Amino acid sequence: MTQSHVAVVAFPFSSHAGALFSLARAMSSLAPSSHFSFLSTKQSLASLSSQQLLSNISLVPISDGVTSPDHVPSHIEAIELFLKSFKDSLREGLKAAELAQGCKVRCIVSDLFVWLTADVADEMAIKWVPVRTGAPLDLYARLHADLIREVIGVGDEAIRSYGDKLLSFLPCLSSHRAIDIPKGINTGDLNFIYYMICDRMARRLLDSDVLVSNTIQGLDPILDSYFQDKFPNYFPVGPFYLFNSSQNEPPNDTYGCLSWLDQHDQATVAYVSLGTIAFILPSELASLAKGLEASNVPFLWSLKEEAQNLLPSGFIDRMNETGKGKIVPWTPQISVLKHPAVGAFVSHCGWNSVLESIVGGVPLVCRPFFGDQTINARSISFVWKFGVSMDEEGFTQKGVVRAFDVVFNREEGEKMRNKVHELQEMVIASVGENGSSRENLKRLLKNVCGC
Ligand code: U2F
């Protein structure tokens, strides 16, 4: 008999739903007598459904808010439409889940990006458990948005005049500079949908005494203390995906990335991926391609087909003919980063990629674009010291060659490798027997399922 019925609500864009689904699966395997209804849009559920599910987890589609089947919205419009109809869609989805299980939902776990879930949970007089899937330090910055605006000011000029001074007025960001502050706090169009979401979610979170985070206790001890003080029920239970037994199954390697890597020596290949929503300009993409070609490092590049069309003419053919590089639309990234041939990861520093790089023991070459990525890049290169950052101008041919020289050939690169191996050990131990993430997950389950 089902002891408790828990709804888990995803933000159905970029890698958010995948990360939350990993958490839902982890919870379902540790609490076999509870049922977990995972709610997301049809399209986002389809991207997850190839993964094998336990019998105590079910997928519940909710509306994407698109009213005409002929209308294909842009990425930004799709988010706007989804959020506009979200509360009604969620109410309907929850009713459907309760009907299917014959059992009331006792608690809603949701991505913090869909903070509006809190209102629906309040209406139903049940608990809301928000989950931060991205970097927790970014959330810390957003919780201090008003103070940042007050001390530094608003606009690019304010950032420039603050210069390279460290943000000593914010204890958890005292190794970061004004330029590392995520856009949408005191720069950029504050009405842009992503920035608006981040601002609202942080404000709504202040009403909660619970926070679940895709991070590991000990990765940032000062931040741990901050969140522990702020949220009596704080659960750092990352990396979510490491709890899934499916990560030990053979990966879906449609493009033969792993066999290509097998042909290379240990730590000699660069892996390149700029995440699921790239904002790179064609001119910068071309500079990255030139840098990869000019360096003596073989590379595997995950690049969507539409972006491949923007590469310099003849580039893909040359790379294929010489065997210097392999360019594919998708890779089994977690397995790629664990492959011994991979010696560097050129990344936009999305939080999932950062965690996967640590688990793989691979130093990063950082080129952040938006969101938490700027803060992550600074933590990686300056605090944790397992990577290098590209200069402010982004990818240049020289910059890529220089970064590879540091990571692959210099003593500094060797130090980064040692540093990432230390973190790797800590992170892997956290999900093992008596590890902090595993113990926190058990505490979380008591909180959400009461068991
Ligand atoms: C947004 O991040 P992204 O989705 O752009 O990037 P990541 O957080 O790094 O997640 C990408 C995921 O996609 C997977 C990869 C990651 O789990 O393993 N992947 C893959 O399997 N194969 C590929 O060829 C390419 C990617 C946002 F932009 C970030 O700033 C946030 O930190 C992040 C989390 O909230 O969401």
TrEMBL record:
EC number: 2.4.1.-
Protein name: Glycosyltransferase
Pfam families per UniProt: UDPGT
Species per Swiss-Prot/TrEMBL record: Rhynchospora tenuis
Example of a GO MF term: quercetin 3-O-glucosyltransferase activity
Family: Belongs to the UDP-glycosyltransferase family.
Keyword line: Glycosyltransferase, Transferase
Superkingdom per UniProt: Eukaryota
UniProt KW Transferase keyword: yes
